[in-house]
């Protein structure tokens, strides 16, 4: 008996993912380290000075982690309720955080107890930060107010009550020590100047604002809210430059890389998108296990830290650069390791080949035992039908070659007919599958024509198949018309390039035009 030959699945070349410099750069991180926090991570902030520790705000604690430590090296836990938005000062010596009870706490990194406590908000304070002069703090709370505080005297300088909903994000200008920005759930972003008692600019984002970011130059502002990330030109009075809609759910955090040439956004859709700040196109993306609340990049992009809603901290470190000059010194066992690798058998040698055990797939085993219907059922299962349809079509082609395709398609119930027609209607328009699936569609129509009208589901699938084939025929007719036009144009161009010919007395003479004056 002849040996069974497995079904040959037609290989179709696939377009590989385009590998760019960004792809190589952002792939250069090690396997992430997972750290479990006590609650959802609402803020991550890197110290701007070496050794670049980072503060993680979750639940009622602020944990300080070293760049490569998996356990906190310091903890601030003097909060009665949840803590929010812990942020470093530019010199890395002080840390400020908001709280659920409405107070603002200022910590010295070398100590544990708060240096200052600022009371003035009547509800939770979610956003705090330092102005670039290092001696003032701005804050925003759920009482709709944005306040400015003096650190030495621990007093309130000015309070702005222009927002009409929760203030949940903010940032300070690195260029002007008097300018800071807040974003609110009232869909607006407001720019404040500490020298003026009211906002100097209001930008309408159109969605509750979850995060704002000011470029280091101070000229461009990025706001995130809803599914949108929008870039505004501050120097032109808040003119909208570009609106990005690459996320499927609410965007919760923004971040710039160390060079300022890449913008990162994290979202509840579990993705981090990386944009070029010149073209504002997505150049790379990361996928995470759960929804993302916070995101931070260390200086020189050495570490990327993402905080998620389930309290997990995802930390990725950049891989060290490979040594270009590898040691040429070989170990003593090298000769033994490669011995016999280049040996060529001689004529008198007897070669013993190890038999290779061939493992058949489920559909091949069924075909081998002539169970046509079950073999077709095996390739109509979701993993094969959805992700490798070429296998399903190859088995159908083999059944047709054997002459058992009609019997495999017959005798099916409403659910199985619906599944078959859905697959055929979806894939029949693909050129690589069309020859086989047209035959399958003809057989299904012949076999189940008597039951048309007895099932609304089957009737609907037959109509879908008819519509798909009708559209494909229309496309083919349009393409033939275009092809005819192109042939006519090519023929015209070809005639125009030939020299003019004159036939006389059965001889072909080339007419040359002489221009003799």
UniProtKB/TrEMBL annotation:
Transmembrane segments: none
Sequence ranges of the WD repeats: 118-159, 244-285
Main subcellular location of this protein, as a coarse class: nucleus
Domain U3 small nucleolar RNA-associated protein 15 C-terminal: residue ranges: 343-489
Localization: Nucleus, Nucleolus
Entry keyword set: Nucleus, Repeat, rRNA processing, WD repeat
Stored Pfam families: UTP15_C (PF09384), WD40 (PF00400)
CDD domains: WD40
GO BP terms in the entry: positive regulation of transcription by RNA polymerase I; rRNA processing
Key word Zinc present: no
Nucleus recorded as keyword: yes
GO cellular component: nucleolus
Role: Ribosome biogenesis factor. Involved in nucleolar processing of pre-18S ribosomal RNA. Required for optimal pre-ribosomal RNA transcription by RNA polymerase I. Part of the small subunit (SSU) processome, first precursor of the small eukaryotic ribosomal subunit. During the assembly of the SSU processome in the nucleolus, many ribosome biogenesis factors, an RNA chaperone and ribosomal proteins associate with the nascent pre-rRNA and work in concert to generate RNA folding, modifications, rearrangements and cleavage as well as targeted degradation of pre-ribosomal RNA by the RNA exosome.
Protein name per the record: U3 small nucleolar RNA-associated protein 15 homolog
Organism: Syrrhaptes paradoxus (Pallas's sandgrouse)
Gene (name only): Utp15
């Amino acid at each position: 008996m002849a040996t069974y030959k497995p079904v040959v699945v037609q290989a179709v070349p696939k377009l590989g993912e385009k590998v760019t410099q960004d792809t190589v750069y952002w792939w250069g991180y090690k396997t992430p380290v997972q750290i479990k926090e006590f609650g959802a991570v609402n803020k991550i902030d890197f110290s701007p000075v070496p050794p670049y520790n980072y503060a993680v705000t979750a639940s009622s604690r602020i944990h300080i982690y070293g760049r490569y430590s998996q356990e906190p090296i310091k903890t601030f836990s003097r909060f009665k309720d949840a803590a929010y938005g812990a942020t470093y000062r530019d010199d890395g010596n002080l840390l400020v955080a908001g709280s659920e009870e409405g107070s603002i706490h200022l910590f010295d990194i070398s100590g544990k107890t708060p240096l200052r406590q600022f009371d003035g908000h009547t509800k939770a304070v979610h956003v705090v930060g330092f102005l670039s002069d290092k001696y003032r703090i701005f804050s925003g709370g759920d009482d709709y107010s944005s306040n400015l505080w003096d650190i030495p005297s621990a007093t309130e300088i000015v309070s702005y009550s222009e927002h009409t909903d929760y203030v949940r994000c903010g940032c300070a200008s690195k260029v002007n020590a008097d300018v800071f920005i807040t974003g609110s759930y009232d869909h607006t972003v407001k720019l404040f100047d500490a020298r003026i008692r009211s906002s100097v600019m209001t930008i309408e984002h159109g969605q509750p604002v979850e995060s704002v970011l000011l470029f280091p130059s101070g000229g461009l502002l990025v706001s995130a809210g809803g599914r949108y990330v929008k870039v505004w030109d501050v120097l032109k009075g808040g003119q909208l430059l570009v609106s990005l809609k690459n996320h499927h759910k609410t965007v919760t955090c923004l971040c710039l890389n160390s060079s300022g040439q890449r913008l990162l956004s994290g979202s509840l859709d579990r993705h981090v998108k990386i944009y070029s700040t010149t073209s504002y196109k997505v150049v790379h993306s990361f996928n995470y296990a759960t929804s993302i609340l916070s995101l931070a990049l260390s200086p020189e992009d050495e570490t990327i830290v993402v905080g998620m809603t389930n309290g997990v901290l995802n930390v990725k470190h950049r891989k060290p650069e490979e040594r270009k000059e590898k040691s040429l010194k070989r170990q003593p066992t090298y000769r033994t390791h490669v011995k016999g690798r280049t040996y060529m058998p001689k004529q008198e040698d007897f070669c013993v080949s190890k038999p290779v055990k061939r493992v058949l797939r489920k559909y091949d085993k069924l075909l081998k035992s002539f169970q046509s219907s079950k073999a077709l059922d095996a390739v109509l299962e979701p993993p094969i039908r959805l992700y490798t349809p070429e296998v399903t079509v190859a088995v159908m082609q083999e059944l047709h070659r054997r002459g058992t395709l009609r019997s495999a398609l017959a005798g099916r119930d409403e659910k199985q007919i619906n599944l078959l027609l859905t697959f055929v209607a979806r894939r029949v328009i693909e050129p690589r599958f069309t020859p086989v699936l047209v035959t399958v569609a003809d057989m299904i129509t012949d076999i189940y024509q008597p039951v048309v009208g007895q099932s609304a589901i089957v009737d609907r699938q037959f109509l879908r198949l008819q519509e798909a084939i009708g559209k494909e025929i229309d496309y083919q007719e349009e393409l033939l018309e275009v092809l005819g036009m192109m042939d006519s144009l090519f023929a015209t161009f070809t005639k125009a390039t030939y020299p003019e010919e004159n036939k006389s007395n059965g001889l072909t003479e080339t007419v040359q035009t002489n221009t003799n004056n």
